[in-house]
Write a structure and sequence with these properties.
With about 170 residues, the chain is α+β, with helices and mostly antiparallel strands. It has 3 helices and 9 strands; from the N terminus they run H-E-H-E-E-E-E-E-E-H-E-E. The chain starts with a helix and ends in an 8-residue tail after the last strand.
């Protein structure tokens, strides 16, 4: 009988130990944090109004007017594939409102992300760069770029693919 109690006690202890070691802890949800930085020449800001629609937390769209040469946003997502990107719209002034004879128009885009699992990526690109553009060419030049976008999709394991067809409509 003593053996029976010892065996039963050992079985009970083993059962408790096995259930206590289970994966009951909730897994930490993977998150990805991205930073957008756009830089604009002062001539560009003088020649037009700049509007940025960007992918914010979990893919929602936010539109902002840009008034300074550098615009930066940092956003986080835990919805995968995470969508990140910006759409830029240039509302050009009329030729009559342009006060200079020549304009240096430049727009750069920097994008980087890091996941809570340690994956990361960084990319810099020039959207356009035109030096000494005549006043009568500014409106036509900026129309070529207005409404364009740059975007990325990031998977939970940190892989990234370009995605320039993201929806920026609210």
């Amino acid at each position: 009988m003593k053996k029976f109690f010892i065996i039963a006690a050992l079985m009970l202890a083993t059962t408790i130990a096995l259930t206590a070691c289970g994966d009951d802890e909730p897994k930490e949800k993977t998150k990805v944090t991205a930073t957008y930085t756009m830089t604009f020449s002062q001539d560009l800001l003088d020649a037009c109004n700049v509007f940025i629609t960007y992918k914010a937390e979990n893919g929602r769209n936010v539109m902002e007017s840009v008034t300074a040469p550098q615009w930066t946003k940092t956003v986080t997502s835990d919805k995968f594939p995470a969508e990140f990107g910006v759409q830029y719209v240039f509302s050009t002034k009329s030729e009559a409102e342009l006060t200079k004879e020549k304009y240096d128009l430049k727009c750069d885009f920097n994008f980087k992300y890091v996941t809570t699992k340690g994956a990361s990526f960084a990319n810099s690109s020039t959207i356009f760069d035109s030096q000494g553009l005549a006043k009568n060419k500014v409106v036509e030049y900026l129309k070529k770029y207005s409404g364009k976008s740059t975007g990325y999709k990031v998977t939970e394991d940190g892989n990234m693919t370009p995605a320039n067809n993201l929806n920026y409509n609210n």
